């Protein structure tokens, strides 16, 4: 009988050793990145709580746990870590707990970074070191040290130090003193310079393409400038693909040749479209873009649009400037025929302008001649003006089509003189402002304002194309397109010398691509600046589409008899 009991005891021991049970792990005393790293390296914590494991495996991993925890905390400067480990059996299996005492971290006693080679006097490298979080007496965190090294190598690659290397890079940890001594010597070598720039293409003169290059041969190499060149050529429209490549294997005397490989775009681009807006009604549009007319890169763009209110045909001839990616010259000819609620105007315009667009700014200086044959209410006539014009635009936004934050400001000046091919002396100022301000993740505030003033002795000599009108989708909603302003005896809106319009709107994104909005608009076109403004209120819905916001608004003209409602439909960006 005693022999049988002995066998049972041995079996029970074997069973307890190989029995399977699940494991629950708890770690306390650390948090944040340190906790995440502990849990990533702690082998026992990687066991699946929903599975069962042999007892011998659980006990082994538990014995290894303090080593795992200490190893995980060293990159964060903790070398004096103490771990109180406990392993208990519970109903569902095992419960492992580890109480961590971090104690005092290792602190930086020496922080020595030396730069040799041409980068010794390169301010960019000094800024990398000075902006790092490695300071004496601060806790030593290994990832910050490695980050600075990585940034130095990346900067060297970006700025043409092709032979850069670390001569020394070590950190001495004194566990007893709890200190870390950093000693790094970085040799940048000689900086490479730009060599010859070669364009692999046969559609344009090299002289034009060289004007796109934002650097000179012999200047210090910088990959950011190569990226700017590639983007500029890609945006030019001449090419379907562009690749700018340094030829390091062909470098001589530390000069690296640059090769630009490109594929020509289709020479002609055709576009067609149909649309509808409550201002213009149904419309049809067609355009052709001759991406290059000649080897000098001149472009020709023609556009025709026909709508219920206004039809236009125009031709633009574009000549690249000294820096083609940012400035160009434009010659434009257009003719339009407008017929809207008692206003009939046939306009012919010919002009030239110089345009510079850099970063967020765009400015245009131009001179154009225009002739108007018009009838508006009881007045009719023919006028011509030669108008010098200057305009400036500033826009900043977090996107091009669907915008959550940004603002835009516009100013335009026009003038004419009776002695210079004009029927009268004229001076005009127009101001515009739009803003999109996020209030929360889902709520935006939108503001819009326009103001204008025109000086002319005889208002009847001013054609409708140079007068101010208010009302419509992008003006004072609730009123018909250009139907706010002074009226003649027939009740026809004849436009004004002055314009004042403002709008405030709040919208709420209730789904990823849908918003609802509440708004109020106020404004008018006036002969005198102190005339009464008209107001509207309304609500709308917006669909955030891939081509911009599609808006459907219902607005009430609260200053009109009967306070009528009007539906407005628009499409396009918010700025």
Short description:
The chain is α+β, with helices and mostly antiparallel strands and 575 residues long.
Describe this structure in words.
It contains seven helices and 26 strands. The protein has 575 residues and is α+β, with helices and mostly antiparallel strands. The strands form four sheets. A 16-stranded antiparallel beta sheet has the order 11-12-13-14-15-16-17-18-19-20-21-22-23-24-25-26, with no helix packed on it. The protein has a four-stranded mixed beta sheet with strand order 2-1-4-3, covered by helices on one side. The longest helix is centred in the N-terminal third of the chain and has 19 residues, at 55-73.
